[in-house]
Amino acid sequence: MNRTFRSARDAVGRVGRRPERRATARPARLLAATAAVTISLAMLTGCGAALDEIFSGGEPPRDEPGGEITASAEADAFEILKGDCIDLGALAGYDDHGEGEKYEVESVPVVPCAEPHTGEVYAELVMEGDKFPGEKGMAKTFEDWCYAEFEKFVGISYDESVYGYTGFYPTKDTWKLLDDRTLQCIVSSEEPVKGTLKDAAQ
Length: 202
Known about the structure:
Largest sheet: 9 strands, antiparallel
Distance between the termini: 37 Å
Number of strands: 9
Order of helices and strands: EEHHEEEEEHEHE
InterPro entries: Septum_form (IPR026004)
Low-confidence stretches: 9-30, 32-57
Helix content: 10-25%
Radius of gyration: 16 Å
Strand content: 25-35%
Protein name: Septum formation family protein
Mean pLDDT: 76
Number of helices: 4
């Protein structure tokens, strides 16, 4: 079972130009972002194992009570939270996909935000409803939401910023089998940064 991830929008190789607003390529608690849990449907439905047992583990080390990442780790794709910082360059498949492409990943390399990183989860939307909106509908929700939330977080619009964005959102299978409704936006930087990009205004 996977999350969809999409490669960063204009985060890599954007030099001296204002990006055009383009439609998202493909979804899954995709890496729209990138995250997937590689477990077959047969395992989920035919072995009698509880979902919480199958997906247990993979939680990154966090402090109490703030919940901030305290050490570098490979976190389960479904354990990523708003405010987490990510080493996108170390994300499996990240460099193998073009801008806006979607793919699925199993784990996400997280780091404390005080350490160098190239991604930060800046917004999260928990969707409502029982019916999966379809791949195009999901991609559009992701694109519209992350685009609008980008300026609120960074302090200037995506079109003016040196940063890009990517993120995670549900696949049809995770929506149905795991009740996955969470869409997450990640601000991405070509060069590693330390600390948060909130109100960076760049």
